[in-house]
Amino acid sequence: MTPDTTPRSKDEAALLDIAGRRLPGGVLGTTRYRDELAFVVKRASGARLWDWSGREYVDHLLGSGPMFLGHAHPAVVRAVTEQLEDGTTYFLVNEPVIRLADEMCRAVPCAEQVRFTSTGSEATFFALRAARAFRQRDKIMKFEGGYHGSHDYALMSSTPKSPKAFPAPMPDSAGIPHVLEGEVLIAPYNDLPTVEALLAVHADSLAAVIVEPFQRVIAPRDGFLEGVRRLTQRYGIPLIFDEVVTGFRFAYGGAQELYGVTPDLATYGKIVGGGFPLAAVAGRADIMQCFDPRLEGVGPFVSQVGTLNGNPVAAAAGLASLAELRKPGVYERVRTIGGALMAGLADLVKKLGVTAQVVGHPTCFDIFFTDTPIVDYRATLTNDVAKLKRFNEACLRRGVLKGATKIYVSCAHTEADVERALAVFETALTD
Ligand SMILES: Cc1ncc(COP(=O)(O)O)c(C=O)c1O
């Protein structure tokens, strides 16, 4: 049963009616389907999700990334259930979170210490604050099109409609204080000469350079991350990799393991919380020390606190997820399945003669309706977004759920799921 074969049930219509009145836009964030396509999730298991009308979707949204093992993975459910019996939050150091910090330091090349937050946005926000405290400077450099969450610094030139000359930022949201436009410098992703020129002028005022090592679905050009690392090292500027998406997804040690470049700090979220609200800053001990409360009054102490930080249920879910990911062959298998879906979609584009390309990594990619090579944010502006929207909606109607600009693949997806999704992609492209 999919939306194109099964009408919305009375129960689901009633829920959507309440949502429309009680939630702004009837939604939880910036993504909103047309009213006819809106649905309410009832449950999810593995790579499948069902709505209140009993319609089934192959899930390539995966909770926007955390559900890399698939929904309701038995090992995660077991670990969480056990922890629930012992209490759900303490605001104190606990065993699951200590073990999670320890495991993260084993997995992640740059990680000597870890500080937990509840969301990826908080993780990037506090990584930047720690870098400012450590380096005793205020400004930060980020890359055009890079997304680091929804705080005021992060929402600069993440999706600028008409980008300005570098390094001037464009706020992506109303309500961001104008004064912050002077605090954020924007650089072009994958353009090392321009980064070098900008740093030559601005290095002394910078507290940090933050980058998604794999920006949205755009891979770094050969030498780009190495170059940014070399330059930041030359000027003594802390380099932050935002690994909220790539962490434990591209490899157990994340993008830093895959690309062989080690930053000073890295931020984590999504997979590390096993589908629960948990995220983290990890990195060099001398920078992470800024979070140590013993520094208050005697050094560059960074105040960072959150009621649910280090939540034991989330930590238990994260630990159980990481244990599954350490099993032999897991990454090879998900890359094979995702690679088959990615290659299959690229073949369809070719076969049907559509002006489009498939861009990204086997676990995280999307289709762009343009023939301009997608190497940076400005190239993505050539994407025919109306076509992409139609494609996304056609997929949804036929029971394939994807993100607005991403197709995630999980360890729970099977060859049969790939076949089903490809059949849907083919009709969606033909439409
Ligand atoms: C690279 C990156 N950084 C940070 C965030 C923010 O994480 P959260 O949504 O948990 O605040 C996201 C969210 O998608 C992300 O993709």
Helix content: 25-40%
Overall, the morphology is: globular
Question: What's the helix count?
Answer: 13
> What's the order of the H and E elements?
HEEEHHEHEEHEHEHEEHHHEEHHEEH
Describe this structure in words.
A 7-stranded mixed β-sheet has the order 4-10-9-8-7-5-6, with helices on both faces. The chain has a 4-stranded mixed β-sheet with strand order 1-2-3-13. The chain contains 13 helices and 14 strands. It is 36% helix and 14% strand. It is globular and about 65 Å long. α2 runs antiparallel to α9, α5 (192-202) packs parallel to α6 (224-235) and α10 (330-352) packs parallel to α13 (415-430). The protein starts with 9 loop residues before the first helix and ends with a helix. β7 (206-211), α6 and β8 (239-242) form a beta-alpha-beta unit. It has helices spanning 10-22, 74-85, 95-107, 120-135, 192-202, 224-235, 254-259, 285-288, 312-325, 330-352, 377-380, 385-397, 415-430, and strands spanning 41-45, 48-51, 56-60, 113-117, 139-143, 184-187, 206-211, 239-242, 265-268, 279-283, 357-361, 364-368, 400-402, 407-408. It is of the alpha/beta class and 431 residues long. The protein binds pyridoxal-5'-phosphate (PLP). Pyridoxal-5'-phosphate (PLP) binds at residues 64, 119-121, 124, 147-149, 212, 242, 244-245, 269, 279. The site of pyridoxal-5'-phosphate has 14 residues, from α4.
